[in-house]
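User: Design a sequence. Structure:
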């Protein structure tokens, strides 16, 4: 079988990057049921290996978008297809996470110096019924408290739902944020449908 040259080069670059971070590769034999525990442990160890700064006495991780893609890729939710992730390169790299059965509302994830921001696009200002924007905005301000782990905002001419996590968040907390935010988009649509055009 002929190996894909580009795939081999990507794998080599990924290995080289891990080596520059001081990480080493090792083979571990575990029972099948122990795979998730090993992946979770690997994610935590790799995240801790990049920790180098302190702020207010608390360790701050130097996490990159690639680090987060790696950690998410090792989760059970991604490996079993409940969540599909894809890195989108650009001036600010973004991770797109699509939750199964909520694929019309992908969650976009950005990694900053101190926080991880998750955003789901809802609808445009032009999709709001005439004369209803003020009323809708008031409703959304009141709705923010009962919507778990999410808040409403307007970015440019788009309404969005967003959440923020510490850069030191465990990968299970990040997965929970992604799935909760995606599911909250459906609740938001139902909650606001009387203000939106058909």
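Assistant: Done.
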């Amino acid at each position: 079988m002929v190996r894909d040259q580009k795939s081999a080069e990507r794998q080599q670059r990924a290995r080289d990057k891990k080596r520059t971070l001081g990480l080493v590769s090792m083979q571990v034999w575990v029972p099948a049921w122990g795979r998730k525990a090993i992946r979770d442990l690997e994610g935590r160890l790799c995240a801790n290996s990049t920790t180098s700064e302190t702020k207010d006495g608390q360790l701050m991780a130097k996490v990159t978008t690639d680090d987060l893609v790696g950690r998410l890729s090792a989760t059970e939710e991604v490996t079993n297809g409940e969540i599909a992730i894809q890195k989108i390169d650009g001036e600010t790299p973004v991770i797109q996470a699509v939750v199964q059965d909520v694929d019309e509302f992908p969650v976009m994830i950005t990694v900053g110096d101190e926080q991880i921001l998750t955003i789901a696009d809802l609808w445009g200002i032009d999709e709001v019924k005439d004369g209803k924007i003020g009323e809708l905005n008031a409703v959304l301000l009141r709705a923010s408290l009962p919507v778990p782990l999410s808040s409403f905002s307007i970015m440019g001419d788009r309404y969005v739902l967003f959440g923020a996590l510490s850069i030191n968040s465990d990968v299970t907390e990040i997965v929970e944020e992604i799935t909760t935010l995606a599911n909250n988009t459906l609740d938001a649509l139902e909650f606001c449908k009387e203000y939106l055009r058909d």
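Residues 107 and 178 are 7 Å apart (CA to CA). The helical segments are 5-20, 35-49, 65-73, 76-79, 133-143, 171-192.
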